[in-house]
Amino acid sequence: MERDPLVCVMGEDVGHYGGSYKVTKGLATKYGDLRVLDTPIAENSFTGMGIGAAMTGLRPIVEGMNMGFLLLAYNQISNNCGMLHYTSGGQFKIPIVIRGPGGVGRQLGAEHSQRLESYFQSIPGIQMVACSTPYNAKGLMKAAIRSDNPVILFEHVLLYNLKERIPDEEYVLSLEEAEMVRPGEHVTILTYSRMRYHVMQAAKTLVNKGYDPEVIDIRSLKPFDLYTIGNSVKKTHRVLIVEECMRTGGIGASLTAAINENFHDYLDAPIVCLSSQDVPTPYAGTLEEWTVVQPGQIVTAVEQLCK
Amino acid sequence: MALSRAASSPSRAALLKPLAAAISSSLFRRPISTDTTPITVETSVPFTAHRCEAPSRTVETTAEELVGFFRTMALMRRAEIAADSLYKAKLIRGFCHLYDGQEAVAIGMEAAITKKDCIITAYRDHCIYLGRGGTLLEVFAELMGRQAGCSKGKGGSMHFYKKDAGFYGGHGIVGAQIPLGIGLAFAQKYKKDESVSFALYGDGAANQGQLFEALNMAALWDLPAILVCENNHYGMGTAEWRAAKSPAYYKRGDYVPGLKVDGMDALAVKQACKFAKEHALKNGPIILEMDTYRYHGHSMSDPGSTYRTRDEISGVRQERDPIERIRKLVLSLDLATEKELKDIEKEVRKEVDDAIAQAKESPMPDPSELFTNVYVKGYGVESFGADRKEVRAVLP
């Protein structure tokens, strides 16, 4: 925001409250109420407003207090945000960033624990990224703000408390690149967002059991970084996808199709996709745990895959 | 020239007319379209105001402006009728929503604002695009899906845009353009532009929740937004009294001031838009309800006669047609002769026919255009196969 006066933030309680997850804390006192705009609870309209402002050249960042609330703005995101660059023959660009937390939290209930990256993946014209560490959150956010395309940045409710040492100097990550978390030889595990931590936990167990998994955080959900993924598949010939998205029509389902289409010859075994169950997230703690993929399940899947 | 300056009201002009005509024809050729001496005209219907003071009924205009109105409205009318024939000849496909009957709104609005002010509207956008400076060739080429169209043939009838003239479209989903319009106003306030945004919508869209959400935000932050309800009394096939409990759309803003305007009178529209622009720059949003009428059905697939009588349509055409009004005004003020106006209409007809012929020659978009403009160039997407040499799809 300091670098470019056209960057502004809008969302519910982003200003004086500092953001419901404190993401925008301190910004309103520094930049004023117009640049860090507290909106009324009208997701459809303030997302539309952000898109209209972006059409004139402003670079708004729209915060959805929870990604589930953005379903109310789906019309604006799909029809206006994604399509305007195309239907106007290239006259308008929409440099908007739509961000917010999603995913399963700690017993927040079904409507506040939605995993809906897949709902947006078919929209032509938008880019989707999911951050997972403080380092890549900062880099991807900067890249998303600088991008002239509309970008949806998926954060996760449970990852806001992570602490990490990050470089002092300026860095911007590439929106379309995946991150190699742990190189390996036996199996490629593709993951993103919070599941990365479950995978790394499972990886410790797997290493003790003698396996050598290669873990890639795909980060870019649309488009997929098939270059990094492809090179990995070429090396290991086995793929396991671990995600928090819904099973039916999820990101994993699309990724499975993409890998099968492009790298079929390099696969020694069918792709295994572990995703969250196709159920509304229950409130009870134990049931909620079983909704998402746990490290134990990942270990079992790898063992099965590598037999 | 002195005589025409004195003709400040229709009745006085009628007395002076025989004398003026006799002198003019014998002395010199009256230049019809360059006279800029001010003429004052009274609108036929007063404004009704809600929470604000109605502007005066006396509008200042000039001969040049009035004849210009006539010409541009005739052009718009002709263009829409030509589009009708093209649609029936299957050269225009899909949806085609025609604006004939409502031209006064587009014209009056343009006369009151500059190109720095933004206009955004729904799908009945052909004439607003022309008003903003679009050419006939771009209109017809886009309608026929050709390369020379304003959106390169990829938008169609409902997606006309002209960024350099502040025309933001052209939107298919009813009501979705209203929050966008508020966003334009927000950007104008942010950049301290001293310009305003006009967000147009219809009586059907006036019942959308987004409108009230957007009004709340615009009023909360004093955004320079003017919401214009083009009330043609029918939301597709549903009459306004069947869809809205309160069809007084200018009052439905509640805490937002409103003004009801005779939308068939281009001068009244001009006066209202000028008033609204001043208001919006100082006090925030205002609603303008334009009482207008469309002769065609909702779109080309709607005959327009199942929910209203032909008598009603022809009645409005006889009594309130915007072009006829300007014609009568021009003739009574003796700014042009009957023949000159007819010549203008012939000229306009020829212009439209030429544009159509030119548009027909424009080629269809290249197949590679399927993938252009999905993303902005420079942030392109390349999907590779197993090694970089095997490129599967490139989205530029």
UniProtKB/TrEMBL annotation, chain A:
Major subcellular site: plastid
Listed Pfam families: Transket_pyr, Transketolase_C
Keyword set, alphabetical order: Chloroplast, Metal-binding, Oxidoreductase, Plastid, Potassium, Pyruvate, Thiamine pyrophosphate, Transit peptide
InterPro entries named among the record's database cross-references: THDP-binding, Transketo_C/PFOR_II, Transketolase-like_Pyr-bd, Transketolase_C
Domain Transketolase-like pyrimidine-binding, first and last residues per copy: 1-162
Leader sequence residues: none
GO cellular component: chloroplast
Catalytic reactions of this protein: N(6)-[(R)-lipoyl]-L-lysyl-[protein] + pyruvate + H(+) = N(6)-[(R)-S(8)-acetyldihydrolipoyl]-L-lysyl-[protein] + CO2
Function noted in UniProt: The pyruvate dehydrogenase complex catalyzes the overall conversion of pyruvate to acetyl-CoA and CO(2). It contains multiple copies of three enzymatic components: pyruvate dehydrogenase (E1), dihydrolipoamide acetyltransferase (E2) and lipoamide dehydrogenase (E3).
Assembly and binders: Tetramer of 2 alpha and 2 beta subunits.
Name assigned to this protein: pyruvate dehydrogenase (acetyl-transferring)
Organism listed in the record: Eucalyptus grandis (Flooded gum)
Higher taxonomy: Eukaryota, Viridiplantae, Streptophyta, Embryophyta, Tracheophyta
Automatic annotation (TrEMBL), chain B:
Role: The pyruvate dehydrogenase complex catalyzes the overall conversion of pyruvate to acetyl-CoA and CO(2). It contains multiple copies of three enzymatic components: pyruvate dehydrogenase (E1), dihydrolipoamide acetyltransferase (E2) and lipoamide dehydrogenase (E3).
NCBIfam families recorded: PDH_E1_alph_y
Top-level taxon of the source organism: Eukaryota
Keywords: Oxidoreductase, Pyruvate, Thiamine pyrophosphate
E.C. number(s) listed in UniProt: 1.2.4.1
Protein name, entry field: Pyruvate dehydrogenase E1 component subunit alpha
Domain Dehydrogenase E1 component: 72-367
Entry-linked InterPro entries: DH_E1 (IPR001017), PDH_E1_Alpha_Subunit (IPR050642), Pyrv_DH_E1_asu_subgrp-y (IPR017597), THDP-binding (IPR029061)
Gene3D superfamilies: 3.40.50.970
A Gene Ontology biological process term: pyruvate decarboxylation to acetyl-CoA
Catalytic activity: N(6)-[(R)-lipoyl]-L-lysyl-[protein] + pyruvate + H(+) = N(6)-[(R)-S(8)-acetyldihydrolipoyl]-L-lysyl-[protein] + CO2
